[in-house]
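Handoff note, outgoing to incoming analyst
You'll be picking up this chain. Sequence as last confirmed:
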Amino acid sequence: MAVSMEQLAIMSDRQTEAEMIEACKQGDREAFRDLFEAHKDRVYTIAFHYSGNEAMARDVSQQVFLKLFTTIKQFREDSHFTTWLYRIVANACADEHRKRRRFVPFSPEIEVSHMTEQGSQESGFHRREVAESVRGAISELTPKLRLPILLKYVEGLSYDEIAQALDVSIGTVSSRLNRGHKMLAHKLSHLRGDFVAGE
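Most recent structure output, in case you need it:
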């Protein structure tokens, strides 16, 4: 069966990452630096959306890569590396939350992805107002409900990937997302009409 150029590129990327991980296992610090550069933005984004706090996001990111550095030899190729990484991020976020024993409100300077700069100032202000309402509602969810929501809608993970990252069943993921959706719908009911239902 013929292999497309796109499939070849994907295979090449996987091989490159596999080689990088193998080098990390052998103690290659340069390879670990490359792995850090490849995933630092993703880790920071999850931590930032989870906490809404730059300092906490930096702390979580630092903890994640320290954990990664000390446990990389434990990674087995029976799952995707990113799934394993998401699990470390999820645990670090939960640990940091427990340490601080409080929810940190989402920071007003967070920009919502996929929002365009087009339109009038009034339209832009309205979108920012809606975005802040959404962020505030997400920040009030418990960590168990917040993480699946972020992994699905910020990172675009499938139910199966979320289940692996959080080390729970797909049924649990479905249940938590469903509860999260209902709570968000209730908290954001005043915005009804501002959205067209998406996914």
